């Protein structure tokens, strides 16, 4: 299938020949497996699942699944509830409207992970429903997850669930759900090159939008790679629209040795360090009911422990709405 409509917005790279857009063309992001060739027409690349991959999971049933309760709840009245899952976030978000998609350009780094059962990711969340047992979520971005992939590479990923991570959904193509149509980009494949501290910066654009005709949620990577779609029938609330959009970072803090993990989020540096040092999301946008990309209204931010990982938003002509996020985890102020 192909989507019937595509949201055209302010920061369409074809229309805006800004300095950052032209720089982006000079630094294309590739996937490492392309060095060995590409897949023919009418096929898709699927990352091979090996027995080792499954054996690293806590159980075969949990392979490719997120642990429960890993969506940041900015308004949660009970902070203990958020921390008990050991997940920490530094995010920007919007709520209070009906959303039909979201877009962001995400700075790509390779954060260090302290324990193999932890991960660090940077993604957008498209959320529907309450944060109870019936939460619907579509997620996409980059992640470093030694347990899932067996290494510390930064990889493109997607995720979905229709029951708050309990029985439905998975990463990438590890269960049925997401339908891929693209033969060039592989889910779960390593992204290259990676940004360097005070060096070259690389970012990836991700757009997820709801086709007004069919109702499916489509994903686009970069400028022209429509990757595939999540069929509307997978979801309850998201069959209609999303009620909240979140952008940002998430890590698992398993508190090794009873202290905060030193797993990094983003670049491992705090937002105040700025470009080239701290990781960013730029040109963050939402898709409205008319299938147009719009600047998000009333952006909030949320982090459980700003001494460990933080977030700072801003706005300018070139980058639109943006934020820096992340941090080192364990440090003298974060034990």
From TrEMBL:
InterPro entries, A to Z: Glutamic_endopeptidase, Neprosin, Neprosin_propep
Protein name: Neprosin PEP catalytic domain-containing protein
Pfam name, any one: Neprosin
Comp. bias regions, Polar residues: 16-26
Domain Neprosin PEP catalytic: from-to ranges: 81-335
Region feature Disordered, mapped onto this chain: 1-26
């Amino acid at each position: 299938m192909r989507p019937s409509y595509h949201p055209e917005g302010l920061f369409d790279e074809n229309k805006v020949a800004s300095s950052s857009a032209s720089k982006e063309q000079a630094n294309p992001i590739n996937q490492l497996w392309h060095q060995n060739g590409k897949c023919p027409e009418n096929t898709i690349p699927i990352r091979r699942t090996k027995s080792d991959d499954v054996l690293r999971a806590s159980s075969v049933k949990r392979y490719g699944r997120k642990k429960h309760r890993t969506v940041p709840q900015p308004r949660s009245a009970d902070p203990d509830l958020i921390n008990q899952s050991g997940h920490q976030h530094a995010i920007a978000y919007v709520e209070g409207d009906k959303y039909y998609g979201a877009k962001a350009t995400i700075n790509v780094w390779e954060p260090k992970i302290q324990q193999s059962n932890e991960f660090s990711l940077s993604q957008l969340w498209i959320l529907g429903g309450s944060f109870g047992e019936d939460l619907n979520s579509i997620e996409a971005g980059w992640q470093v997850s030694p347990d899932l992939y067996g290494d510390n590479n930064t990889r493109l990923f997607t995720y979905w669930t229709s029951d708050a991570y309990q029985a439905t959904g998975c990463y990438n193509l590890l269960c049925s759900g997401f339908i891929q149509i693209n033969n060039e980009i592989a889910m779960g494949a390593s992204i290259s090159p990676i940004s360097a501290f005070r060096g070259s910066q690389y970012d990836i654009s991700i757009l997820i939008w709801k086709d007004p005709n069919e109702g499916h949620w489509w994903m686009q990577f970069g400028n022209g790679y429509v990757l595939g779609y999540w069929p509307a029938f997978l979801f309850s609330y998201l069959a209609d629209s999303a009620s909240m959009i979140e952008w940002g970072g998430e890590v698992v803090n398993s508190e090794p040795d009873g202290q905060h993990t030193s797993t990094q989020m983003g670049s491992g540096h705090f937002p105040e360090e700025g470009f080239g040092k701290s990781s960013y999301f730029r040109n963050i946008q939402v898709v409205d009911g008319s299938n147009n990309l719009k600047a998000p209204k009333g952006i909030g931010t949320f982090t459980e422990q700003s001494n460990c990982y933080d977030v700072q938003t801003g706005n300018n002509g070139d980058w639109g709405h943006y934020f820096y996020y992340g941090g080192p985890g364990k440090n003298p102020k974060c034990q």
